[in-house]
């Protein structure tokens, strides 16, 4: 591939994601292992580190999802506690970043600061936090706080949680643990760990009991597509998840977020843009394409296609043929939602319906094919050489800084990529051949952590 004139070759950032049970995984594949066995997590993490990936990423769900009043068994996102898993992986890896998705709506700053500082210490500076909020009272019912926060309040709370967590960690300085055996003095000063914070959401003061972690502050990861989300993420995040799969959409998002980061006094390179992606490899283009077709039809069965369509139309579609056309009627915007525990990112359901119809018409797609198209991640399909070219082209032309790869089969779904594509990326100088930093922040080439900034 050709790099745009005058631009240095970028190093591709790679993350590995172990998903739960959902329409992106093929849990029934004969090669699939347990979604909750520690050996599954360890295998994928070790494979990622063998491929010189930057980080291992876990998503999280706080409640089992429901469809039409029943637990939806194909999207239960079942897995152990995030911090427990990541702490276990800290013991079987040496360089790989460890990123967890932890909610700001129902967790308190003190416990969040303590848990992430502890993980950063245990891993030698490899912790990262994907900061998310909850969108419904359905999830909140699991917690004492309960209730529902609208979008503006969710961002306000998330911003103030970040401010509070940073204040707690900053209550310890880099040299506060003196541990002078000659004098018997352990702490360098009085007042270590003292904090006090008064905001709209929090009125806290006390003593924080975990020394400053190796990274100062673990990496912050966010997803921000709306204007408010982009502002918040560009001001505070070290990495931002991008939802865009096509260069025409990805490049404007990349440039906009980087420009916002600069306006917030940061370097453009201090914010990494990372879309999720899947990879399907074959011995030839035709072989890979056939594997991709089979995979997507395993992921989105006829029943899954109808269930996902019902989320948009908010109606019972069980009488429809999933291999037939899209429903001719509009979404029911007056009835209670048929699906609980999964976010509809656009509150205007009929706008979503219109987009689906446009996609179906443009591609001549039936209902199931449309669901596959709109739910698919940025999948790169082809031989190892072709996929290496596709990944490199996307990054070098500023579609992103790298990718979070989602193998459809747990835990071995990343093995072939590491064995065949990684060496090709290394040969062209787009992927490291060794880890040069001691922390995740250093391996990503990021500036030292700074205090949280209001969006």
Automatic annotation (TrEMBL):
<keyword id="KW-0288">FMN</keyword>
<feature type="domain" description="Luciferase-like">
    <location>
        <begin position="32"/>
        <end position="396"/>
    </location>
</feature>
<protein>
    <submittedName>
        <fullName>FMN-dependent oxidoreductase (Nitrilotriacetate monooxygenase family)</fullName>
    </submittedName>
</protein>
<comment type="similarity">
    <text>Belongs to the NtaA/SnaA/DszA monooxygenase family.</text>
</comment>
<keyword id="KW-0285">Flavoprotein</keyword>
<dbReference type="InterPro" id="IPR016215">
    <property type="entry name" value="NTA_MOA"/>
</dbReference>
<dbReference type="InterPro" id="IPR036661">
    <property type="entry name" value="Luciferase-like_sf"/>
</dbReference>
<keyword id="KW-0503">Monooxygenase</keyword>
<feature type="binding site">
    <location>
        <position position="226"/>
    </location>
    <ligand>
        <name>FMN</name>
    </ligand>
</feature>
<keyword id="KW-0560">Oxidoreductase</keyword>
<dbReference type="InterPro" id="IPR051260">
    <property type="entry name" value="Diverse_substr_monoxygenases"/>
</dbReference>
<feature type="binding site">
    <location>
        <position position="155"/>
    </location>
    <ligand>
        <name>FMN</name>
    </ligand>
</feature>
<dbReference type="InterPro" id="IPR011251">
    <property type="entry name" value="Luciferase-like_dom"/>
</dbReference>
<dbReference type="Pfam" id="PF00296">
    <property type="entry name" value="Bac_luciferase"/>
</dbReference>
<feature type="binding site">
    <location>
        <position position="101"/>
    </location>
    <ligand>
        <name>FMN</name>
    </ligand>
</feature>
<dbReference type="GO" id="GO:0016705">
    <property type="term" value="F:oxidoreductase activity, acting on paired donors, with incorporation or reduction of molecular oxygen"/>
</dbReference>
<dbReference type="GO" id="GO:0004497">
    <property type="term" value="F:monooxygenase activity"/>
</dbReference>
């Amino acid at each position: 591939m050709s790099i745009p004139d005058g631009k240095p070759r970028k190093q591709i950032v790679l993350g590995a994601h172990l998903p739960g049970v959902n329409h992106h995984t093929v849990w029934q594949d004969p090669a699939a292992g347990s979604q909750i066995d520690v050996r599954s997590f360890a295998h994928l993490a070790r494979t990622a580190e063998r491929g010189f990936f930057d980080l291992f990423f876990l998503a999280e769900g706080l409640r089992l999802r429901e469809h039409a009043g029943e637990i939806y068994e194909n999207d239960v996102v079942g897995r152990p506690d995030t911090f427990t898993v990541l702490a276990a992986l800290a013991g079987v890896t040496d360089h790989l970043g460890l990123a967890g998705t932890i909610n700001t709506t129902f967790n308190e700053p003190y416990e969040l600061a303590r848990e992430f500082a502890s993980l950063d210490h245990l891993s030698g500076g490899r912790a990262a936090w994907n900061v998310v909020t909850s969108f419904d009272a359905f999830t909140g019912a699991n917690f004492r706080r309960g209730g529902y926060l609208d979008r503006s309040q969710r961002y306000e709370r998330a911003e103030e949680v970040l401010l509070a967590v940073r204040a707690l960690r900053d209550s310890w300085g880099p040299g506060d643990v003196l541990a002078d055996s000659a004098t018997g003095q352990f702490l360098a000063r009085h007042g270590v760990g003292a904090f006090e914070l008064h905001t709209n959401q929090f009125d806290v003061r006390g003593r924080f009991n975990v020394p400053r972690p190796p990274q100062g502050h673990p990496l912050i990861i966010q997803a921000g597509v709306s204007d408010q989300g982009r502002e918040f993420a560009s001001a505070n995040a070290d990495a931002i998840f991008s939802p865009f799969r096509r260069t025409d959409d990805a490049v404007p998002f990349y440039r906009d977020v980087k420009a916002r980061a600069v306006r917030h006094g940061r370097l453009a390179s201090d914010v990494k843009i990372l879309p999720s992606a899947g990879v399907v490899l074959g011995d030839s283009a035709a072989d890979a394409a056939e594997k991709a077709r089979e995979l997507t039809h395993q992921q989105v069965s006829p029943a899954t296609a109808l269930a996902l369509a019902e989320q948009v139309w908010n109606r019972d579609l069980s009488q429809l043929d999933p291999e037939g056309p899209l429903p001719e009627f509009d979404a029911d915007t007056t009835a209670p939602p048929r699906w609980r525990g999964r976010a509809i990112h656009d509150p205007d359901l009929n706008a979503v319906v219109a987009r689906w119809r446009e996609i179906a018409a443009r591609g001549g797609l039936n209902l199931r094919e449309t669901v596959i198209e709109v739910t698919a991640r940025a999948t790169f399909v082809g031989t190892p050489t072709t996929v290496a070219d596709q990944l490199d082209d996307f990054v070098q032309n500023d579609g992103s800084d790298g990718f979070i790869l989602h193998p459809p089969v747990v835990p071995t779904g990343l093995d072939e990529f590491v064995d065949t594509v990684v060496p090709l990326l290394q040969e062209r100088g787009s992927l490291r051949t060794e880890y040069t930093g001691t922390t995740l922040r250093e391996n990503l080439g990021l500036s030292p952590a700074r205090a949280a900034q209001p969006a």
